[in-house]
């Protein structure tokens, strides 16, 4: 089968077409992958930056998000062959990822049915970014009346976090560069936009003199952001800024479980949220996409035939 792999320590990611198709174990299903995405995590994994934290089992097939059809069932399963499914691999090692024609899914991985009316291409970019946005906002318990600063609002997680904070009734202040990125976050529901390349603290203070009640920390330095919290405010970080750094901070490790995945799919189906895709790559273009990776407006999608 085709896949994008790292073949040894220090190797660049490469497309190859000679890997064996995996077989599902007793508690797994085999998914024929039709869509995936490029997450910040994948870029780090491809660059070898997860060494030390995770075991690289070569050849490492990269990729975490998937959407496709159930191709085979290893044992008993609530799914049937042909069911459209999507989700996120959640393994403690790097080895059998989703940038491949087939992947086995089970154990701690998140998997859910793709509802009618949601394209596999959309479901394939939804799982990790969406679950991270949901878990972050749930940890912050955002309510009407809150002012939520989303730092890193332009990325895959940020684009969904802005929408969910707005849905929760909050006033959203989003970071973005001037120009198209500012239009992008306004379009998603940000009431105010601050340019993080300028005096971020001054701009936020001008909008919220007593501070903001909640901060979604997806990018940038956490300490000056935490200094913008109002009394009793809270910050949730996906990039490791936690209670050791600030008493009002919590560090998030996303868990894309069935509850999150079903909620995301329902919200997309009902049109309550959308997943902006900046660019769509074919599987064999992914190695190039990784070398060109920079900040995105929304998600980078991967398509398989
Ligand atoms: N803990 C977890 O479970 C978990 C799960 C998923 C993701 N993550 C992490 O969460 C972060 C966000 O994920 P993502 O997929 O949304 O990443 P992404 O798509 O790369 O988005 C990051 C965004 O932040 C912007 N940005 C860069 N520097 C900034 C700054 N100083 N202030 C404000 N915005 C800035 C970038 O835009 P420009 O540079 O173009 O302006 C980009 O749009 C990543 O570091 C990812 O690894 C963690």
TrEMBL record:
InterPro entries: ADH-like_C, ADH-like_N, Chloroplast_QOR, ER, GroES-like_sf, NAD(P)-bd_dom_sf. Residues 1-26 are annotated as: Disordered. Residues 1-20 have a biased composition (Basic and acidic residues). Residues 10-302 form the Enoyl reductase (ER) domain. One of its GO terms (molecular function) is oxidoreductase activity. It holds the Pfam family ADH_zinc_N. PANTHER family: ZINC-TYPE ALCOHOL DEHYDROGENASE-LIKE PROTEIN C16A3.02C. This is NADP-dependent oxidoreductase. It comes from Micromonospora terminaliae.
